[in-house]
Amino acid sequence: MKAAVIEKAGGDFIIKEVDKPSPSKNEVLIKVEACGICHSDNFVKEGGFPGLEYPRIPGHEVVGIVEEVGENVSNWEKGQRVGVGWHGGHCFECDPCRRGDFINCENGKVSGIHYDGGYAEYMTAPKEAIANIPEEISSADAAPLLCAGITVYNALRNSGIRAGDVVAVQGIGGLGHLAIQYAAKMGMRTVAVSHSNDKQELAKKLGAHHFINTGEKDGAEELQKLGGAKLILATAPHSDAITSVVDGLGIDGKLLMVAATGEPIEVSPMQLLMGRKSAAGWPSGTAMDSEDTLKFSAMTDTKPMIEEFPLDKVNEAFKKMMDNKARFRVVLKP
Amino acid sequence: MKAAVIEKAGGDFIIKEVDKPSPSKNEVLIKVEACGICHSDNFVKEGGFPGLEYPRIPGHEVVGIVEEVGENVSNWEKGQRVGVGWHGGHCFECDPCRRGDFINCENGKVSGIHYDGGYAEYMTAPKEAIANIPEEISSADAAPLLCAGITVYNALRNSGIRAGDVVAVQGIGGLGHLAIQYAAKMGMRTVAVSHSNDKQELAKKLGAHHFINTGEKDGAEELQKLGGAKLILATAPHSDAITSVVDGLGIDGKLLMVAATGEPIEVSPMQLLMGRKSAAGWPSGTAMDSEDTLKFSAMTDTKPMIEEFPLDKVNEAFKKMMDNKARFRVVLKP
Amino acid sequence: MKAAVIEKAGGDFIIKEVDKPSPSKNEVLIKVEACGICHSDNFVKEGGFPGLEYPRIPGHEVVGIVEEVGENVSNWEKGQRVGVGWHGGHCFECDPCRRGDFINCENGKVSGIHYDGGYAEYMTAPKEAIANIPEEISSADAAPLLCAGITVYNALRNSGIRAGDVVAVQGIGGLGHLAIQYAAKMGMRTVAVSHSNDKQELAKKLGAHHFINTGEKDGAEELQKLGGAKLILATAPHSDAITSVVDGLGIDGKLLMVAATGEPIEVSPMQLLMGRKSAAGWPSGTAMDSEDTLKFSAMTDTKPMIEEFPLDKVNEAFKKMMDNKARFRVVLKP
Amino acid sequence: MKAAVIEKAGGDFIIKEVDKPSPSKNEVLIKVEACGICHSDNFVKEGGFPGLEYPRIPGHEVVGIVEEVGENVSNWEKGQRVGVGWHGGHCFECDPCRRGDFINCENGKVSGIHYDGGYAEYMTAPKEAIANIPEEISSADAAPLLCAGITVYNALRNSGIRAGDVVAVQGIGGLGHLAIQYAAKMGMRTVAVSHSNDKQELAKKLGAHHFINTGEKDGAEELQKLGGAKLILATAPHSDAITSVVDGLGIDGKLLMVAATGEPIEVSPMQLLMGRKSAAGWPSGTAMDSEDTLKFSAMTDTKPMIEEFPLDKVNEAFKKMMDNKARFRVVLKP
Ligand SMILES: [Zn+2]
Ligand SMILES: [Zn+2]
Ligand SMILES: [Zn+2]
Ligand SMILES: [Zn+2]
Ligand SMILES: [Zn+2]
Ligand SMILES: [Zn+2]
Ligand SMILES: [Zn+2]
Ligand SMILES: [Zn+2]
């Protein structure tokens, strides 16, 4: 089969023929129909993720058709359309797994990092990492929902906010443009926060009730004019920008960070203590969370904005994503 | 009446005769029996708190007997033993007040800062700032519970932790020595965290199940050996020390800060995202929270460790507190 | 001024001239623009509510213009458009009030029951019972939102359900037709439950994703086919009908009852234990909750379906409501 | 090996030699040291539980030593002391399992009902049903904690109550005598509710702060005198008695039922609506919950009161339990 392979840290994608994988007894073999490109795939391209080995085929936003199942797999069958996201499997035996908290599995696997992913014609994945895809959504549209989508949907629905609350989405990109739609469709008073006016019109179209341009005005002050945010969903990995809006939180406000960066934000006890505020993080979700995300997206007609590329053009597609020029998610089709 | 007055920012306490106050129509006049000295009283001594004017009599951990009530006061009567804490009154008309969230009143008053407090023979306070004191607790023991006690009791009971969870109390001082007792009596697996072994024996006596000396060992690592803390209650205003234990949080762990300092802590989105962690602040409580604190303290026989001083020795007493030599709260008796 | 007065239990409304009221020092005088008729107004017509005295002017869904304020009222001013709902005032001094839980005030007043309400040209109300009305909503549309609307909006947003969850609204009447709209606009998978097909088309138009006719099919079974309801909002006061859908709850499902009836439902420990289910009640809300309801309604363009009547036709209007023939709320205009 | 077998519904226990079981690949073989007798074992004795087949060896409160593990078992090893409770295994593949909600598995097994249990010298159990037993607790003491203990501990810690709240334990029996201890050790103001004074002294010794004899006084009224219960934990399966205390709930009070009976309680919407009350059920817990229960019990020195019988005397032991004469749990030792 054809695949886009990273052979060593720092290398380009090489399109080549590799062996079509076979599912082991707890695995499912998927014929890939679409695979989103995610910024986290750069962990494979540039190296450094714990447990990563080369050569590696990346891809953790995968939608395709079940082609074959391992002997222990009884809940998936040939012909189903399914997806695989960031959470690529868990051990069932560690303490978090025994509590049912699979996302925090001590031996968890990431698809496309700990095993080969969806930048290929086929991939295998453990049965527990598989999600069903509703008919209403095309494979290309579904793919980014399995990482970008689930992350913000899951963060929002588990944040404790109530319908009508002021929710600010910081950053209008791959995650942010979905978060704005979800927040609006959850009945939140949705505020798009960006550093220029370029995306103002788009933000309104996606459902934002308000728009704040932090290039012109102080983001925290503007949020306070709206009563203070009950939730600021920080979708862009820029810790300085995040730090700058903490004071835009209202009473009981929560800063919820979904963009994985190790660069610290700064916040004082006093800032959080006055008004009982908090800062928290949220990590994607499991296959069931993916199914919930997709069902909600189908019900509310939420779609990612995507640009499609054939697998052969993976280097070009990847560069566009890294250059932050894609509007907003890039999807490969094998 | 006799009072300890700060006449200007930076000045010492001056013991002098001042006019005994009269309650206005919504106020209660209290004959002071005991008043705790709190580190926050230094805001009065050194100046800088918004809305503070001189001369001022500090004191927001006040217990005494109702001597007289204003004409609109029907729920308090002469002879009752009552207390006043940090939260010194609210407006009932701002939006937080209309939501019943008095602690976040936009026009809230702090006793001993926005009006004269308990370093005196008498003080007045708005009726909504008054708490009933249960018989089982002496006035001197009750006083520090109205600020140090309520802050940690209220933070702990509202933190969402469940009995049996690992709770670390960082800092064994005025707040911490109470937090250890409360946490243990709430059925938490209580871990005292200190920077030396000096207070190890005491911590165990107060109910701590474990003790971590961060002077010898890495606090975060030691907490992880216990499974990770579900809650770290940071009671000392040292942001570096707080930053250093963030990685001691377990899954769904929360860093809860009650010590008011403007010095930022540093924490990365990644640190919080992995394991769904959070950092939050908690501000004392209302008069009803004080009553809950006192009832719980009476029921569980929780007492502050105090050193009593006559009002005349306020300068000596205050210095001992500021030098961090008191074990652990200083209480003035007029 | 003209008013519709009930002079004794069981009597009809009598349209007559009465003295225009004057606001006492904590009250606001309102020139009524619209007043909804609520089933609970029948407590006045037929008698029996604790604390009710005659003659009485009912009406607790009142919108009008501030005409005059009492001397202690600083947060409302002449000319503002405001509303008064079921919660007609609280004492600020009982324990629930001291906790900020005004709705559970031990001395709470109901507008139009404990004092004269909005079936008149003017009414007075305590300042704490007043809500601001956003410009986007007409007075006639706003009126029913102050009781029917707030009750279901507040119940839904505080129920702990998450966007995408299956929410069944039982009963499509004054409360139900609003609940369907709110649930849909909060991103819930909304199921309308009715005992005939008459309102099926309407329910879909209001936003329902599914419709169950319990006249034809077993409601509980149909809900289980949808995965089981996370929430069943019981809006009609028919305890048998409520009892019959309890088994339609899914895992962690909650039956939430907002229709005040003293007739018991039946539910066994086993029914609730399997799947960790619960049954709960929810009582309307405060003036701030009214403001939240109205803001959300304005933001999402949620409107009650109303039939307007002049105050003079109150007897005809009231009968239509009691006969369950109104679609769906009746609003009086003086 | 020796076992106590029920050969048909309604039969007595027959002590006989049966084949020692062998663990299948996902199972663990346990040499039984102690097995509690639970009222639910009567489902086996009298028949009627879905999926039950004869002959059957009951017993779901089992503590013993791992003797052998199946080939797929890597997290348990020979020589460990372990336990098995009511929750006897789950499928990992149904939707609740995929959400990590094992207790609601659609294919869940109950130990001693769907497969042979601990009234024997040996038993096997699926690896996911196994809990580790802390050294501090004897096998006989640990056994009842795996069903009676976990049920009330888990119900209490997940109920949302806060330390200091009024918690009533209705029924002082196998579950209730543990619930009183746990509630007190969680810092709850603990009220024992019984229908006679027989157990008053005992209740106080177990930690109850208050005692209500519903044979002499109205339980609901007495609870209201204490401020109203935030939680009533109904541990005895008597629906009339449960119904009678609903009005003892305070604001936001919750009636939590853990005793499995199909006999309905009666409660009106009005009863729950006033004060935002609720009625809910709670089902035992998983192996991890068992571990939490045991750790908490060890930490707080909570022990069941037990009467030990040799396996040979199972009929006598069982009768004592059924006659409600045991104080309070009966434990068999093979
Ligand atoms: Zn991704
Ligand atoms: Zn795991
Ligand atoms: Zn203080
Ligand atoms: Zn205020
Ligand atoms: Zn009404
Ligand atoms: Zn009140
Ligand atoms: Zn049992
Ligand atoms: Zn299952």
Can you tag this structure with a few keywords?
homotetramer; 334 residues; alpha/beta; Quinone Oxidoreductase, Chain A, domain 1; Rossmann fold; seven-stranded mixed β-sheet; globular; binds zinc ion
Question: Could you please describe the fold and organization of this structure?
Answer:
Four copies of one chain form a homotetramer. With 334 residues, the first copy, chain A, is of the alpha/beta class. Chain A has two domains: 2-147 and 285-333, Quinone Oxidoreductase, Chain A, domain 1; 159-281, NAD(P)-binding Rossmann-like Domain (Rossmann fold, 3-Layer(aba) Sandwich). Helix content of chain A is 26%, strand content 26%. The first copy, chain A, has ten helices and 16 strands. In chain A, strands 3, 4, 5, 6, 7, 15 and 16 form a seven-stranded mixed beta sheet that branches. Chain A has a six-stranded parallel beta sheet with strand order 10-9-8-11-12-14. The longest helix of chain A is centred in the middle third of the chain and has 19 residues, at 139-157. Chain A is globular, with a radius of gyration of 20 Å. At the A-B interface, strand 12, strand 13, helix 8 and strand 14 of A face strand 12, strand 13, helix 8 and strand 14 of B. Strand 14 (278-281) of chain A pairs antiparallel with strand 14 of chain B. Residues 38, 40, 60, 86, 147 of chain D line the site of one zinc ion.
